[in-house]
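In the current project phase, we have settled on a layout for protein records. A sample record is reproduced below.
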Amino acid sequence: MPSVNTSEAVAGRVAIVTAAGAGIGRAIALEWSAQGGSVFAADLHLDAANATADAVREAGGDAGAVALDVTDPGGMPDAVAAATREYGRIDALFNVAGASLPRRVDEMDDADWYRMIDINLTSVYRCSKYVIPELRRIGGGSIVNIASTAGLLAENRCSAYSAAKGGVLLLTRNMAMDYADDGIRVNAVCPGSTMTPRIRDYLDRLPGHDDLMDGLCPMKRYAEPEEIARPAVFLASDGASYITGATLAVDGGMTAGKHFAIFEDA
């Protein structure tokens, strides 16, 4: 099997990226373009999607943009139709859209619960459902789902978010099995705490937690969005041609194991 030219790992291929307006989604869009692919940036806010598309084009890449509410059943069919009109094909989907709500079960109402499940889990089903026929039509492709370390290890006061992200991991494995014969690979990335606008907002509103990663992460820092984007794009590239159904933790060692300070002095 010939080696893969990593400088143009996805050259000529088209990817839809949800939540592409900021954070990890924006970083994936820019990385996909840097690797030679075309980007269709989808975001709840059209101006944010357009800003990402503009950034891709300013860097010499090719990009389109569309407004997409991943909780709207009619949104993704329209986005897929727009992408195929513009590019004639879709080769990859990055399911990035997500939201969190710090609540225990008894602190939530049904609307809170269903909204978290809809944004974080149902959106992966819904977006994949409408892209899979296009991937099948061209003979295969790739779906990369952005899950979370909260889907591997529960996080306090994140009941719905953890449940949804855990569901994303099993849905990823199911789809990997169901669509392997179609040449469609499906994988998941579990980011640890990443310095996205959402995390920055938490830190600004809740001062005194800037050193939080010192006790949670062996690498003692937050990830940058680009550090999540690079492995995500790799999983969608030919460099990962024999990888499907995988869960990749990109978390600075947060889920590697427990650290017992007493053992340092043993």
User: Anything to note?
Assistant: The chain has a mean pLDDT of 93.
